[in-house]
Design a protein that fits this description.
Main location: membrane
Largest sheet: 4 strands, mixed
Order of helices and strands: EEEEEEEEEEEEEEEEEEEEHEHEHE
Radius of gyration: 47 Å
Number of domains: 3
Distance between the termini: 5 Å
Pfam family, one: OmpA
CATH architecture of the largest domain: 2-Layer Sandwich
Strand content: over 45%
CATH topology of the largest domain: 60s Ribosomal Protein L30, Chain: A
Helix content: 10-25%
Structural class: mainly beta
CATH class of the largest domain: Alpha Beta
Number of strands: 23
InterPro entries: Bact_OuterMem_StrucFunc (IPR050330), OMP_bac (IPR006664), OmpA-like (IPR006665), OmpA-like_sf (IPR036737)
Organism: Echinicola strongylocentroti
Shape: rod-shaped
Strand order of the largest sheet: 20-23-21-22
Keywords: Cell outer membrane, Membrane
CATH superfamily of the largest domain: OmpA-like domain
Length: 364
Amino acid sequence: MFQVGFVAAQDQQPSGSAPPTENPSPGKCYVKCITPDEFREETVTVMVKPQHTVLTTYPATFKTVEERVEVKEASKKLNYVPAVYETVEVPYISKEEAKNLKVIPATFQDDLEEIETYPEVGRWEYRILEDCPSANKEDCMVACYVEYPSKSEAVATKTLNSDARTTSTSTSEVKAVYRKEVIKTPARVDEIDIPAKYSTITRQVVDQPARVEEKTIPAVTKTVNKSVLVKKGGMTVWEEVNCELVGSANILPILYELNSAKITPKSVDIIDKNLLSVMRDSPALRIEIMSHTDSRGSDDYNLSLSQQRAQSVVNYLVGKGINRNRLEAKGYGETRLVNKCANGVDCTDAQHQANRRTEFRIIQ
């Protein structure tokens, strides 16, 4: 994934499409890099269910009241001709008219919203032809412009078809009658006062009318992460690097606490001196961080722990301003031991320590 040019140069930084070739001096190494695309991570909020209203109805309530009514009028009694009465029916409302409310809930319909999560990009890639007849592989190098399609994610949403509402129906009033005696023929001659008679009736009246309560249900949203192309890469540049860093993994003498991926203050100094300065001096380089463990503990646990440790180094460098696209974190667990100390083999602490290492290598 990279080419190294062992060419002489002045004490200036190389730039452009080729390393400097005039006034060469030995001991200079350059890596041929293709500048990567630069992205900005953004988040978009999608409304998957809109705000709507939920209605709750409460029916009318009644209370029973008593009323004193006159059931027989006062009159006079005659000694000789008594009064003559007749009975009549008097109507009254025993239950008043009221309304009943019924809720028709809100309805929704399914929908989909297409979100572009990764844009369409393209870049130049260099390949060497097979069966190259020249001893110089540069003579058979081909530059190909490769396009990569965009990626999208379909987010299921719901749209409001009709909001909640109510319908009402009426309850008819209930009528009743009571009987009443009224004078048909008054008494004559001697008059004797006859007092009126009264009775108590009961009737139902509306205590609280029917009502409806509204409750607003907030909208439901979903956050989608997307990458936005900020600067298109694909340019070829030459970066001067320390020759000792080229061609193999380079050990970072980072010591972690037992069963921990936290970077210690001492490890921060090591990363700044051995790796952060290299990436700042050569902004086109891409680096792979590789972490390993010894054989003690389960294979799955060691693989997860090594990945966490490699990622902690990447996160630290990103926090120092290094673009995350220039870094790759890879945990190998106990799959790349540097000695015989595999599972079941009796080894010293020093031998196990040799396997608990973090390395980095230039991958572009």
